[in-house]
Amino acid sequence: MTSNPKAIIWFRQDLRLRDNPALTYAASVGEVLPIYILDEKNNSNFPLGRASRWWLNHSLRSLDKSLNGALCTFRGDPIKILKELVSTYQIENVFWNRSYEPWQVERDTAIKHKLQIMGIKVESFNGSMLHEPWEVLKPDGHPYKVFTPFYKQHRIKTIPQTDTVNLGHLRFVIPNQHNTDLKSLNLISENDWSKNMMSEWTPGEEGGEKALKLFLSQGLYQYKLGRDFPERNAVSKLSPHLHFGELSPIRAWNEVNNYAISENLETQAEHFYRELVWREFSCSLLYYFPELTVKNINKRFNAFPWQKSSELLSRWQDGETGYPLIDAGMRQLSRTGYMHNRVRMITASFLVKNLLIDWRIGAEWFWDSLVDADLANNYCSWQWVAGSGVDAAPYFRIFNPVTQSKKFDSEAKYIKNWVPELVPCPNKYIHDPSSAPSKDLQQQGIKLDKDYPSAIVELKTTREAALNAYKSLKAVSQ
Question: Nearest 5 degrees, angle CA 375-CA 336-CA 357?
Fold first, then answer.
């Protein structure tokens, strides 16, 4: 070993300095070479979507700034890149925080083996989870398939404390030829959409810290009930920061816990904890059931009579279904890379159970469109809505977008924000304009199929069709 040991810290979904165990350990070893590798070879089945690429681009810029311009970025096969860096800079150690998606686990295992053969010390850490998948299992050692017992077992365990190591004296390996410009990753092209996104979000560790503080001061006190109302500022919007690792779940949990105790908000906080643990539950399911992104966990659904309609799919994607709450959610998604969680469930239910379009198609659209697109959470949630997952919504739970709209957006504030052509619509019709007498709408300057589309399907008819389809599965299984 040289007198001045050097270590690579390989950033992945942990784009932060604070509470980063791999970085902390690397800094204690010696000089650090911080790198990021855009791996489009091993994740070819799930390439980053447009919204994720936009977020990643700006998050990496933020990380590089925090590292005083020391971040080296690469595009290609990680093992080839790491071997070259180890050779060029006489690197003795390679550290990273673990990832849990199936392709990442397979890749990282192979990389670790190859580097160790070369005599390189390789260590990985938990930088993304409260508890890793193998730490929350049933007494018989098998993974949980139902959320509630998983949550109860998870809550028994002690949450680790936040890492408070001072990284102010990081010493960097000075690269001589590998200071790859972030532009070479070709993550985004500047256009009106990407520019507008900057008014909605602040990617990066600093943005994550600000979002956490905002949630504590404005959202937590109303979280239990308020998070169901899409127009209220009652949700955390921490999901993209957690997904890209700009904020650790340990820090989020501990900060919420401390604040809740001081402000007597423990009941509100408990519901936030459930959301964090649902994230962990989804990760566990994908870890132990890696095919859930492409196959029905419940095999009976292999016989489900999915319908194919490019026209209906396009109308759903474009927010032109004729159901204002659905359209508001889909337009929010396309313009901001985000959709309120309750509206996500309603729009997903509409696609799967009213249009009878395969849940995998919806999951692909969300994967491309969401800034918080997380492989485990996205696909587990779609299987939950479809009823094909391990802990799924019952088949008869079909969200009615009209009644949901009246209940959770009674004054149509959310609708009017994202579907402005309906602002003049009388409140008694705005949740379902197709049910209104045409003369009443025309008096307000609204003509269906000109100013706003008629409903593309009839809810009662399609609900009955979905229920019949589900019942046919029971017959097949017998």
Answer: 55
Please say whether the beta carbons of 431 and 412 come within 8 A: yes
Q: Which two structure tokens, joined as six digits, stand for 386?
A: 């479809």
Helices (H), 118-238: 147-156, 192-197, 205-214, 223-226
| pLDDT score of 219 | 95
pLDDT band at residue 478 using 50, 70 and 90 as cut-offs: very low
Query: Distance between CA 71 and CA 172 in Å, rounded?
Result: 10
Helix axes 341-349, 324-336, angle to 10 degrees: 120
Which of helix, strand or coil describes residue 77? coil
Nearest to 35, CA basis, from 3, 2, 78 = 78
- Cα gap 83→75, rounded to integer Å: 14
What's the chain's average pLDDT? Answer: 94
Res. 184 pLDDT band, cuts 50 70 90: confident
Annotated active-site positions, please? 275, 278, 306, 341, 359, 382
Total residue length of the chain:
478
Residues 6+ apart with CB under 8 A from 230: 328, 329, 340, 342, 343, 408, 409, 414
The predicted model gives 349-375 an average pLDDT of 97
Count of Cβ atoms closer than 10 Å to residue 295 Cβ: 15
pLDDT at 274 over 50: yes
CB half-sphere exposure, 212, CA atoms < 13 A? 22
Lowest mean pLDDT across 99-103, 125-129, 177-181, 309-313? 177-181
What are the Cα distances from residue 297, in Å, to 134, 347, 389? 20, 22, 5
Q: How far apart are CA 256 and CA 235, in angstroms?
A: 13
Which of 232, 250, 235 lies closest to 162 in space, CA to CA?
Answer: 250
